[in-house]
Amino acid sequence: MYLKSAYDIRDKYLRKDMLPTIFCPGCGIGSALQYTLRAIDDLGLNPDEIVWVSGIGCSSRVPGFVNFDGLHTTHGRALAFATGIKLANPNLKIIAFMGDGDAAAIGGNHFIHAIRRNLDVTVILINNFTYGMTGGQVAPTALKGLRGTTAPYGQFENPFDIADLAVSAGANYVARWSVFNYLQGINSIKKALSKEGFTLVEFLSPCPISFGRRNRMKTAPELLRWYQKITVPLAKAKKMPPEELEGKIVIGEFVDRDRPGLVREYEAYKRRAKKMMGWEE
Amino acid sequence: MRYPFPVGKSDFIQGDEAIARAAILAGCRFYAGYPITPASEIFEAMALYMPLVDGVSIQMEDEIASIAAIIGASWAGAKAMTATSGPGFSLMQENIGYAVMTETPIVVVDVQRGGPSTGQPTLAAQGDIMQAIWGTHGDHSLIVLSPSTVQEAFDLTIRAFNLAEKYRTPVVLLTDAEIAHMRERVYIPRPEEIELVERKLPANEEEAKFPFGDLHGDGVPPMPIFGKGYKTYVTGLTHDERGRPRTVEAEVHERLIRRIIGKIENNKHDIITYNTFELDDAEIAIISTGIVSRSGVRAVKILREKGIKAGLLKLNTIWPFDFDMIEELAERVRKIYVPEMNLGQLYHLVKEGANGKAEVELIPKIGGEVHTPMEIVERVVG
Ligand SMILES: Cc1ncc(C[n+]2csc(CCOP(=O)(O)OP(=O)(O)O)c2C)c(N)n1
Ligand code: SF4
Question: What torsion, rounded to 10 degrees, do the Cα atoms A164, A167, A172, A175 define?
Answer without folding.
Answer: 20
